[in-house]
Write a structure and sequence with these properties.
The chain has five helices and no strands. By secondary structure, the chain is an all-alpha fold. Helix 3 packs antiparallel against helix 4. It is elongated, with a radius of gyration of 14 Å.
């Protein structure tokens, strides 16, 4: 498995540039595995952002608060799991998104 640092960067981008880094990596890198991972990360970040926004909108009715907690934890835990898998040179697929990309 090559490009370990690039894979870690794509996963870690959730805390500093969640849309830009995976998009740039997807457009510039020719490695198929890294391209798939960056597309998964990009879709995960976009979808989780939408879900958190909708949860925030519905939190005024109190039904959004549990969803906000769940989606917030997902947004933190999934990239950490990806970083740990990339460090150990193991493949990682984002939850739900991984099956849609391939």
């Amino acid at each position: 498995m090559e490009n370990k640092g690039l894979k870690i960067l794509v996963h870690a981008s959730t805390w500093f540039a969640p849309i830009i880094v995976p998009l740039v990596v997807y457009l510039l890198i020719s490695d198929r595995e890294v391209k798939s991972l960056s597309l998964q990360a990009l879709l995960f970040h976009v979808i989780i952002s939408i879900l958190i926004s909708v949860s925030l909108l519905f939190s005024w009715v109190l039904i959004g608060i549990p969803f906000l907690i769940v989606f917030g934890l997902m947004a933190i835990i999934a990239p950490i799991m990806g970083i740990l898998r990339a460090i150990n040179d193991k493949p990682y697929r984002y939850p739900i998104i991984g099956s849609l990309v391939d």
